[in-house]
Structure formats: structure tokens, C-alpha cells
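Example S7 (C-alpha cells).
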């Protein structure tokens, strides 16, 4: 059916040939810059320093599943890997009005093999490319997330300010602002600045180096000695999946008591697991907080931990019908649909089919939240003007079924 509102992917990817943007790196650091390398016949990748090249994901999208391969794909010939004009055309044929664009899976952490000033310059060059060249072609449709370096707080603050000043719609963190795998007191300077700038904060999947999270309170006492090696944090987060371990870190750090208006979006998490996590998080908190507080000074919370999750975090999903069916257990205002284009989970150019399957039986007003309004609110796009897609999704389903 035709929709009278834009459909915006809350998580897509921009992985272009490095030569499109590495010329912005100062000459003295350019020999360390990412570069395109041949992988196999018909396949290219990106090499960073002496590390193992990462494939370009051109062989995992835009074709029937049985024909896909992770070892094919040329940057200038593959879907999703070309110019901004190409990307807009790819959105049009998919019936998508805009995309929130992340870079590599690990974001700024993907470049950590580049050391010192060269690392900071590399991250800044990417942000310059987004802000000055790529996104300005259509700022409300090409919604690039600036990368926040994981080197130190000063570098993180500088890139946050630059991304805001240059008009990017949000930033993606790969670690805490200090570059650590757990919250640090100095991170509050970053959170304060982000709130003052009204800058949306995101992370793709979870923080690198701590995907399951590390206990923030183990910095205070030796929990192995005092609790016979039983880590209460692992109890609180033992049913956590992508991003949830970091959410629990933030909650027990007291972040949202200090910054009650702070919000955070974890992309590409899927959502079907969240109701179970929220239920068991509260149960595990009830069971373990008393001894954890008594032995380890783990703070008791003002509210149940699930309440913090529901109020302060949003989650991205792709093909996840069971998650959509449980949307009210999570909160329909806290979840956002996405295509993951051009990565393996994408169904481009048949996203309309995926939408129909995901949202079967969902009232139109709730579909609008998950496909459009939630992402527009989070990234401050409420006043952006879009042409709604005129693709008939029922025809897209029929066309797909006939292939």
C-alpha cells in the first residue's frame, strides 16, 4: 500500500572506497591511511595498516539469497558503495526516503591500528568527507553519523564539536568518550556537551572491547576477594544481548541520575530478546543487589533498572517479526526499523516486502512510529521535508514472489 509518510532506515551503512576520502588526511599521515586492496577475483577490500583486510560487502546484497557470496564485490560496481547520487537512486528504487548511515561495524575502533596523531587525523578526515562532500547532497536523506575517536576525551570532544558545527545529524561512539571500556568520571564533560548541543548519540551494535560490558564498580573494590569471585554485574547482565551490557554499565554508573534527559540509540540489535532481558534484569537486580551493595558498594538504584532502559534507550531492528509482535513490552516509541543496506541482512531493493512481513497486523499509526516518526524524533528530523514513497508495497511482495 502507498504510505503518506516517509520511510527512513535507522541503520544503513556507508562503506566506500577509501580513495574517495583519504586525500583529506594530512600528507605526513597518508601512508598509514586505509587503502583499497584486491582480495580475490571480482572482490576488493579495505586494508588498514598491517591488519587483515575487510571485504567490501557488495556480494551480500541486491540479489537472491542463493546467489550471495561474501567474497565478491567491487567498490565502484556494487550496490551501496558508490556516490551520494547513486545512493539516492538506490533509496528511490527501494521505496526508502532516507537512511541513518554508519560506517564499519566497529566504527572508530576499526582504525585503532593507526596510532597517535595519524589516528585522530584519519577519523577527522572521514567526518570531513561526510560533512563537506557526501551528506550535503541531500542532508535529510543521507543522515551520516560522525565517528567519535576512541583515543582520549579531548579528541572525542573535538570531533563532537566539529560534527555539530558542520551539521551532521548525530555521532556514533565505539567506546566511552574517554576511550575506556567502562564509564569514567571525565566522560561527564562529553555527555554535558552533547546535551548542550542537542546532539543525538548512537552506537552501532555495542561498544567495541566491551560488547558484553565490564563491571563499572570493580574499579572501587576487589570483587574477587570480597564476593568469592561472584561478579554481580554478570548476574545483572547475564541475559543481555547487543548493547544491553553497556546500557547496564551506564545505569549503575548513575549516568541517568546525573543526566536525566540523556538518550542513547543502539543500532542493529534486533528486539525480540528485549522483553525477556527487561524482565530478568529486574529479577536479577532484586536477587543480587543487597549483597553487592553490602560487599562491593554497588549502588542501589532509585528505580528498577528496566525503567531506566525503557526511558533512555532506543533499539534498531531489521527482519524481526517476533520482536514487532512484542513491541508493547519494549515501548513502541523506543524501537526503529532499518534496512542494514548494503550489508548481509539487507533485502534491498525489496524492503517493501520485508516491511509487509514485519508489520503484518500492526495498526497504521504504530507502523508510522516504527518506520518514520521515532527516527525523525530521535535525530531531530521532524521539520525535514520528504516525498513519501509511492511504491505499492503489495505489488512489491507480488513481484518478489514471482521471481
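Recovered sequence:
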Amino acid at each position: 500500500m502507498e504510505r503518506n509518510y516517509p520511510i527512513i532506515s535507522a541503520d544503513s551503512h556507508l562503506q566506500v572506497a577509501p580513495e574517495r576520502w583519504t586525500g583529506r588526511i594530512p600528507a605526513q599521515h597518508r601512508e598509514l591511511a586505509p587503502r583499497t586492496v584486491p582480495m580475490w577475483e571480482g572482490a576488493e577490500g579495505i586494508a588498514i595498516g598491517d591488519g587483515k583486510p575487510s571485504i567490501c560487502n557488495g556480494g551480500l546484497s541486491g540479489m537472491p539469497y542463493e546467489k550471495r557470496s561474501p567474497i565478491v564485490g567491487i567498490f565502484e560496481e556494487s550496490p551501496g558503495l558508490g556516490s551520494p547520487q547513486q545512493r539516492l537512486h538506490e533509496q528511490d528504487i527501494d521505496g526508502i526516503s532516507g537512511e541513518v548511515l554508519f560506517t564499519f561495524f566497529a566504527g572508530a575502533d576499526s582504525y585503532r591500528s593507526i596510532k597517535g596523531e595519524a589516528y585522530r587525523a584519519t577519523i577527522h578526515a572521514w567526518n570531513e568527507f561526510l560533512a563537506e562532500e557526501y551528506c550535503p547532497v541531500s542532508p535529510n536523506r543521507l543522515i551520516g553519523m560522525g565517528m567519535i575517536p576512541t583515543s582520549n576525551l579531548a579528541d572525542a570532544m573535538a570531533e563532537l564539536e566539529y560534527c555539530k558545527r558542520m551539521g551532521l545529524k548525530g555521532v556514533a561512539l565505539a567506546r566511552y568518550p574517554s576511550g575506556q571500556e567502562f564509564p569514567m568520571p571525565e566522560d561527564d564533560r562529553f555527555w554535558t556537551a552533547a546535551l548542550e548541543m542537542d546532539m543525538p548519540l548512537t552506537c552501532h551494535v555495542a561498544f567495541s572491547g566491551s560488547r558484553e560490558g565490564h563491571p563499572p564498580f570493580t574499579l572501587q573494590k576487589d570483587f574477587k576477594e570480597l564476593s568469592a569471585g561472584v561478579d554481580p554485574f554478570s548476574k545483572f547482565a547475564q541475559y543481555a544481548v547487543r548493547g544491553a551490557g553497556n546500557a547496564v554499565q551506564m545505569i549503575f554508573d548513575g549516568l541517568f541520575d546525573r543526566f536525566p534527559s540523556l538518550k542513547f540509540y543502539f543500532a542493529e540489535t534486533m528486539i525480540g530478546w528485549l522483553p525477556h532481558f527487561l524482565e530478568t534484569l529486574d529479577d536479577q537486580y532484586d536477587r543480587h543487589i543487597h549483597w553487592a551493595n553490602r560487599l562491593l558498594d554497588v549502588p542501589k538504584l532509585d528505580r528498577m533498572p528496566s525503567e531506566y532502559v525503557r526511558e533512555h534507550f532506543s533499539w534498531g531492528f531489521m527482519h524481526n517479526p517476533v520482536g514487532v509482535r512484542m513491541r508493547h513490552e519494549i515501548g513502541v516509541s523506543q524501537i526503529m526499523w532499518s534496512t542494514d543496506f548494503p550489508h548481509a541482512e539487507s533485502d534491498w531493493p525489496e524492503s517493501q516486502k520485508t516491511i509487509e512481513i514485519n508489520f503484518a497486523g500492526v495498526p497504521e499509526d504504530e507502523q508510522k512510529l516504527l518506520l518514520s516518526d521515532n527516527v525523525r524524533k530521535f535525530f531531530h528530523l521532524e521539520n525535514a521535508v520528504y516525498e513519501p514513497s509511492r511504491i505499492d508495497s503489495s505489488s512489491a511482495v507480488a513481484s518478489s514472489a514471482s521471481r
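Notes on this example. The CA atoms of residues 278 and 391 lie 37 Å apart.
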